[in-house]
Amino acid sequence: NVLLSIKDLHASVEEKNIIKGLNLEIKPGEVHAIMGPNGAGKSTLGYVLSGREGYEVDSGTVSLNGEDLFEMETEERARAGLFLAFQYPVEIPGVSNLEFLKAAVDATREANGQEAVSSAEFLKQAKEACKKVNLPVSFLKRGVNEGFSGGEKKRNELMQMLLLKPKVCILDETDSGLDIDALQVVAEGVNSQRSDDRSFIVVTHYQRLLDYIKPDYVHVLSDGKIVKSGDASLALELEAQGYSWLQTEPAEDE
Length: 254
Ligand code: ADP
Ligand code: MG
Ligand code: MG
What we know:
The chain is α/β, with parallel strands linked by helices. The chain has one domain: P-loop containing nucleotide triphosphate hydrolases (Rossmann fold, 3-Layer(aba) Sandwich), CATH 3.40.50. Helices cover about 35% and strands about 30% of the residues. It has 9 helices and 12 strands. The protein has a 6-stranded mixed β-sheet, with helices on both faces. Strands 2-1-4-5 form a 4-stranded antiparallel β-sheet. Strands 7-8 form a two-stranded antiparallel ribbon. Helix 4 packs across helix 5 (about 150-165) and helix 5 (about 150-165) runs parallel beside helix 6. The radius of gyration is 18 Å and the shape is globular. The chain starts with a strand and ends in a 7-residue tail after the last helix. It binds adenosine-5'-diphosphate (ADP) and magnesium ion (2 copies). Adenosine-5'-diphosphate binds near residues 13, 36, 41 and 42.
């Protein structure tokens, strides 16, 4: 029973090979942390999985719930339960957060053969979600990401996650500094949504985040492939020793 299966994935950006034979299997309910040096391809992996323009798959396969991910358009992937958070999407002035969220949830429910939720019921759920992530309800009326601070964007994305209930959540912290407050927001959001049928890929530079989100597995991504996998203790080792010691080891061969 595998939720997300990545097999020998090779992908490029601007004709440059970035992902170079990556394998990863994620079962329902698991939390996988991906760490690794800057430029290793961690963010690229998230973009390739979500189907972002400009990210080319050269070879390999990825299946989500047994279905070929690369046969699906970006939006279909989202509707099939894949969610990529923290990429700081552009502002969408004129479209309120509530409208944006409702449209996303409606589309997802429809794609999964579920009935639409009434506007009143959705508003109720959205207000509850605001409370959970500690955002004022007035955020629902504001334009998508319009003038949000970094922390507010994170809370807002966690709210989206609460409402969309994705099956595979990819959280990429990017290289931006996260203060302890934002770390805790992210950790609480993830922890409150951990369940037997939902999986997370947490991309992070910060071992500290993994003090709050206990991963089942930690992987090191280096030069486009996973060069080491372990349990949560691997993150502590990396914190103490950095990544350079891994580069002398032969990479796991395909
Ligand atoms: P990480 O998230 O591990 O720090 P990235 O996935 O952001 O690494 O980047 C991996 C490599 O791909 C880097 O060498 C980066 O310069 C390159 N890269 C990523 N996105 C682009 C892009 N849009 N155009 C050109 N090169 C890119
Ligand atoms: Mg980077
Ligand atoms: Mg990155």
